[in-house]
Amino acid sequence: MSRNRTIIYAIYFLFKREGQTLNPAPLRFPNFMLVIIATNIVIIFEKKRLHKKKLLRRFVLTKQTNMTKKEKTNRLNALVGSLSAPSKMPCSGYNIPAQECKIGSILRKIKDSTCSSCYALKGRYLFSNVKDAMYRRFEAIKKNYWVDSMVEQIKLNNKGDKRYFRWHDSGDVQSLEHIDKIVSIAEQLPEVKHWLPTREFKLFEEYINLHGVGKIPSNLTVRYSSHMNDRISNKALNKTYSSMVISSEDKIKEIDTPIKVCPATLPDSNHKCNDCRACWHFKGTIAYLKH
After folding, report:
1. pLDDT on residue 3
2. 3 phi and psi, to 5 degrees?
3. What are 61-92's pLDDT values in tens digits?
4. Max Cα separation, the chain?
5. What span, in angstroms and rounded, lies between the C-alpha atoms of 146 and 51?
6. Each residue of 211-258: pLDDT tens digit?
7. 10, 38 in Cβ contact below 8 A?
8. Which residue from 84, 59, 86, 89 is spatially nearest to 74, judged by alpha carbons?
9. Which residue of 18, 46, 90, 105 has the fewest CB atoms within a 10 Å radius of its CB?
10. Cβ–Cβ < 8 Å for 204, 198
11. Quick one: pLDDT at residue 90?
């Protein structure tokens, strides 16, 4: 749409709203300002429409076989954002803003909750470029091309041990649709073991009630995280895969439920997963020593 046509439409709808007919008489100053405002609004919506069309075209182009890896990566990054690189992980991840966590936003206001000193609200996660990148990923989740683009992104750019992938080193699932999209991605990548930690118990319970527990593919480990430090919630304990946070090594002795302590969180470790893949495979509760 040309700028001139946009202005004509804006003027037309303005006069139509006022019940006037178009004529060459000069506009009064207030009306002229309304025309300018209306014109800018129309231009903004038109730019958004063209941007969406451009993104869809980029996605179609990622299917071309004659593209270089760099070209394809650049287009995928524009669509869904780049993959994250958690320092201790053996593989890549995908993070979104912790500020948007639903349960987490409530828990971080509660003393001794696992979110009260959230690592994803500190350090490099607060850098403006990091926050901007996470919010671009957050917005991309809602797009209809997100699933297929993420499948391509993980295939192409998952670093390290490509047999594994981590969801949400920052952030959590947002909706039933979000869960369904991650399930679809896991189904399309059966060779990759996906780990999805979550505090959104109710969302997953609703999803399973709607679709059945069999809807969660075997290569997607949904690990339910307890809400309070040094305690395993009953809901988490009843799950095949669960986790908790312990405030000190001394607390390990006080827990009467068999647990596996994450070796990467121990003070004498190099704070890396190394050969451990318990978060993806261990059936039971994993305890992380508080950061």
Report:
1. 53
2. -65, -40
3. 555 668 899 999 999 999 999 999 998 999 99
4. 86
5. 15
6. 998 999 999 999 999 999 998 887 787 889 999 999 988 888 888 777
7. yes
8. 59
9. 18
10. yes
11. 97
Structure-token match 């305890």, residue found:
287
d(CA 226, CA 286): 10
Show the tokens assigned to 55: 């993104």
Q: Which among 244, 255, 246, 254 is positioned nearest to 285, based on CA atoms?
A: 244
Better-scored residue on pLDDT, 4 or 98: 98
Rounded CA separation 33/28 (Å): 9
Angle at 173 between CA 251 and CA 278, to 5 degrees: 45
CA-based radius of gyration for the chain: 24
AA identity, residue 54: K
> How many CB atoms neighbour CB 8 within 10 A?
13
Tell whether the model's pLDDT for residue 145 goes beyond 90. yes
The whole-angstrom distance between residue 96's C-alpha and the CA centroid of its chain comes to: 4
Residue 21 CB partners (closer than 8 Å, separation 6+): 15
Cβ–Cβ under 8 Å, residues 59 and 145: yes
The two structure tokens encoding residue 144: 């209809």
Q: Collapse the DSSP code of 54 into the 3-class scheme (helix H, G, I; strand E, B; otherwise coil) and give the result.
A: helix
Q: What is the pTM of this model?
A: 0.78
DSSP, collapsed to helix, strand or coil, labels residue 222 as strand
d(CA 2, CA 6): 6
pLDDT at 22: 47
Query: Token digits for 245?
Result: 């946070």
- The per-residue DSSP string of 132-184 comes to HHHHHHHHHTTSTTHHHHHHHHHHHH--B-TTEEEE-SS----SHHHHHHHHH
Give the position of tokens 């399930």: 183
Report the length, in residues, of the chain: 291
Q: How far is CA 111 from CA 114, 120, 122, 189, 193, in A?
A: 9, 17, 17, 39, 34
